[in-house]
Write a structure and sequence with these properties.
Rossmann fold, 2 domains, 7 helices, globular
């Protein structure tokens, strides 16, 4: 089942909304880096293009192993009846990746578990590239030091543009809800021990508050389980 969220904002409001959302997208994806590593770790999700991008990096010989981590999350529990990692494995095989170079982790339901459970699988890993959605780069970047201290980690994503290239699985409005919730977690999670502290730029916070005022609150912590 594919989740469709209609775009029904008035045109004048939509322009303002997209301007604020684009500011969040640009900032949250701005920490993209990658270097040769021991493994490429894919934080699975609803967006299979993340897997495609990771496969491209594998073919560039940036790492010898592809680790796919994910069970089901807030979006994908409505899409699939098997773990995200299995769906991504099928995609990786279709992209020509050798089965012997793929490792699955099928229990994680959030970024902290993605990292912690892969650490349990590969405790001797020294360097890793984490691949995620563009708007999730910041959260993964802030989570790695808590869940895997000492790891030399890079975080990357496909270079998708907002709003033209957002996933059509949840649509533009779904992505905006998700980004607002992610900023909420960046603010709240350090006190809970889930992420390292991060100071958000004032303009990003301004746009975040404006989107909350417009009703983009479905992914915030007081709307969803942690």
């Amino acid at each position: 089942m594919r989740m469709m969220i209609p775009v029904n904002l008035p045109l004048i409001m939509r322009a303002t909304t997209l301007e604020h959302a684009a500011r969040l997208w640009t900032y949250m994806s701005s920490m993209r880096t990658r270097e040769s590593s021991d493994a490429i770790v894919v934080c699975c999700s609803y967006d299979l293009r993340v897997c495609d991008y990771a496969c491209e990096l594998m073919k560039q010989n940036l790492a010898p192993r592809l680790v796919l981590t994910g069970k089901l999350g807030n979006w994908t529990k409505h899409l699939w009846s098997v773990p995200e990692a299995q769906i991504f494995r099928d995609r990786a095989l279709a992209n020509g990746i050798s089965p012997g170079s793929i490792l699955l982790e099928e229990r994680a339901t959030n970024f902290g578990e993605n990292i912690a459970f892969v650490r349990n699988l590969l405790p001797d890993l020294k360097r890793a590239i984490f691949i995620t959605k563009p708007c999730a780069v910041l959260r993964v970047f802030l989570t790695v030091p808590v869940q895997w201290p000492g790891l030399t980690a890079f975080v990357d994503s496909p270079p998708h543009a907002f709003p033209e290239e957002v996933s059509n699985v949840i649509g533009v409005l779904g992505v905006i809800h998700e980004m607002v919730g992610d900023i909420d977690r960046v603010i709240q999670y350090p006190s809970r021990g889930f992420q390292v502290p991060h100071r958000m730029p004032p303009l990003v916070l301004e746009s975040w508050r404006a989107l909350i005022a417009e009703g983009f609150v479905q992914h915030m912590l007081d709307k969803l389980p942690i």
